[in-house]
């Protein structure tokens, strides 16, 4: 017997009886029927939680509202990188991914990766600049937001590929 979805060879799991049972269980568990709940959840995940909520709010109002909005707002103000809306969230996601990558590296090798060098002419910063100056890739995506490549350059203190290339040429050992 061929399955309606054709994703596996199980004949029992795709019978009308099993599909009816799954639909009943989903309704009882509050998941609804079909994929409506899943789509609603995915849409909620795609929307930026701070977009349009913190614009125009005073610091007192942000603090009163609670949550992480005030913390993120003040941290970014102190770093001089405050940006309203989705860009801020994109940077949060970048940092989260970076922390995961560092933790995985430590778990696998037992060694800790060094901190980003945003100033000076350290060997690692020169190496980063030379490596990233030669990479292909755009600084902005189709929506006009910075790509991960652009964010990495920014985190290491370079405003553009050309700035990294100039720094590399000036400071690399010959």
Approximately how much beta-strand content do the residues carry?
A: under 5%
Class per helix and strand makeup: mainly alpha
Record field, number of beta strands: 0
Give the overall silhouette.
extended
Radius of gyration: 24 Å
Describe the largest sheet.
none
Verbal overview:
- The protein has 174 residues and is mostly helical.
- Among the domains are: 1-33, no CATH class; 115-174, no CATH class.
- Helix content is 55%, strand content 0%.
- The chain has helices spanning 16-28, 36-46, 59-65, 69-79, 86-109, 123-133, 148-155, 161-171.
- The chain is extended.
List the helices and strands and how they pair.
Elements: H1 16-28, H2 36-46, H3 59-65, H4 69-79, H5 86-109, H6 123-133, H7 148-155, H8 161-171
What's this entry about, in short?
The chain is mainly alpha-helical and about 170 residues long.
């Amino acid at each position: 017997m061929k399955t309606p979805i054709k994703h596996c060879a199980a004949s029992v799991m795709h019978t009308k009886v099993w599909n009816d049972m799954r639909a009943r269980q989903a309704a009882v568990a509050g998941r609804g029927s079909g994929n409506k709940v899943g789509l609603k959840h995915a849409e909620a995940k795609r929307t930026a939680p701070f977009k349009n909520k913190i614009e125009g709010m005073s610091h007192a109002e942000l603090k009163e509202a609670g949550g992480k909005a005030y913390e993120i707002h003040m941290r970014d103000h102190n770093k001089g990188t405050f940006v309203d809306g989705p860009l801020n969230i994109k940077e949060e996601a970048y940092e989260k991914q970076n922390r995961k990558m560092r933790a995985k590296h430590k778990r696998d090798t037992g060694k800790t990766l060094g901190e980003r060098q945003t100033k000076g002419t350290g060997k690692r910063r020169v190496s980063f600049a030379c490596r990233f100056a030669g990479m292909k890739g755009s600084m902005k995506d189709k929506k006009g937001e910075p790509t991960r490549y652009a964010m990495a350059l920014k985190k290491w203190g370079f405003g553009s590929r050309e700035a990294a290339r100039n720094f590399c040429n000036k400071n690399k050992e010959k």
